[in-house]
Design goal:
With about 375 residues, the chain is mainly α. Helix content is about 70%, strand content about 5%.
Length: about 375
């Protein structure tokens, strides 16, 4: 039996992987924390820029490790996850994030005396908007953060919050120092001095910042409408997903799942047609449940209790021909068609249940309970 330490190349490989996965993010985070409280930060611009760029690259690698594969309407394997942000509405988040990061870089590399007060407010407003979005993304990921090494997502989110707060405080301190210098230079121009400092004082209030933030959001909303995204595009970017915190969509059955074709109908059809009501459990798998599926299963349960012999023959017929049918239900249209074709049989099942069962709705509602 070969021992682990007899293969130094394997040990070296694990050490390199540990350095990349934990060492670099941990080292950059520690450096950023020290710089945040230090009177004279060391290599602040370089370390902050590396954190934003390299951290973003690691973020994409983490998504790949998470086995994030497709949109909510695409079937995936059980060990995979659907995308946390809808690709259709992704631009509604991408452009504010891009502008926000650009604003951060400008605030990081340019001193306050080289930026006008109004432009500074514009940059800070964009940076605040960036952090609102990135906090929403962090909450979106929280539902599956315990999978693999998902907590590393929050290392990047923490760093962005820390760096944003640092650059805003630093910029405000520079503005104060710059205003004091200007005050000394204008000692002989009382009227100009009064007008200048009124404008400076106004620009330092929170109201212009909020007004600028509202203005930016309004411009983005107009852009989204013109681009066909809609006013609610930023919200739909989170809700038109499956498997995550803000997700509102019900995904189709996993690719490896082969079962009741009515399960496929409930999960794969258009929501307004097949009317899914909740999630349920079948043989250890989580499935989408609608009323038609519950009625059919309740009827089968009743049949098994009253006529077990007949139930076995019907079940054998269904297992022989029902499962192959489910493999042909590959899109919402075919699922809708099967749902409509099954309606007369659903009504027949419901009539039998109401005739033969004292509490038919109780039997129906308990089907596939998790």
């Amino acid at each position: 039996m070969e021992l682990f330490w007899e293969h130094p190349q394997i040990i070296f490989g694990y050490l390199i992987m540990f350095l990349i996965v934990f060492g670099i993010p941990g080292g950059l985070t520690l450096w950023n924390i020290i710089n945040c409280f230090a009177k004279k930060p060391r290599f602040e611009k370089a370390v902050s820029t590396i954190t934003v760029i390299v951290g973003g690259f690691f973020y994409l690698i983490l998504l790949a490790i998470f086995n994030v594969r497709g949109e909510w309407y695409e079937p995936i394997y059980p060990d995979e996850l659907h995308t946390p942000i809808s690709s259709e509405y992704f631009p509604a988040l991408f452009f504010p994030l891009l502008i926000g990061f650009a604003g951060y870089i400008v605030l990081l590399y340019f001193r306050a005396d080289r930026l006008s007060p109004l432009f500074s407010v514009f940059l800070i407003a964009n940076l605040i908007l960036l952090n609102i979005i990135q906090i929403a993304v962090a909450v979106q990921l929280f539902k599956n953060a315990n999978r693999n090494i998902g907590l590393l997502f929050y290392v990047y989110h923490f760093n962005i919050l820390l760096l944003s707060a640092r650059v805003i405080v630093k910029h405000m301190k520079e503005q104060v120092a710059y205003y004091k210098t200007r005050e000394d230079q204008m000692s002989g121009h009382s009227k100009f001095k009064w007008l200048y400092f009124k404008a400076v004082k106004l620009s330092s209030y929170a109201f212009p910042l909020l007004l600028m933030l509202f203005f930016i959001v309004a411009l983005l909303e107009i852009f989204f409408v013109l681009a066909g995204q809609g006013l609610d595009a930023p919200v739909k970017a989170f809700t038109d997903t499956a498997d995550w915190t803000f997700s509102k969509q019900i995904p189709p059955p996993p690719l490896e799942y082969e079962g009741h074709y009515l399960c496929t109908v409930a999960a794969g059809g258009h929501e307004k047609v097949v009317k899914p009501i909740r999630l349920g459990s079948r043989r250890g798998a989580v499935i989408v449940v609608n009323r038609q599926l519950c009625i059919a299963n309740a009827f089968e349960e009743l049949l098994q209790e009253k006529f077990p012999g007949l139930h076995r023959r019907i079940r054998h017929f269904y297992d022989t021909y029902g499962y192959p049918v489910s493999r042909h239900i590959k899109n919402p249209g075919s699922a809708d068609a099967v749902y409509i074709l099954m309606k007369p049989l659903e009504w027949f099942f419901l009539m039998v249940l109401y005739l033969a069962d004292l509490r038919p709705e109780v039997r129906i509602n308990r089907q596939y309970k998790m």
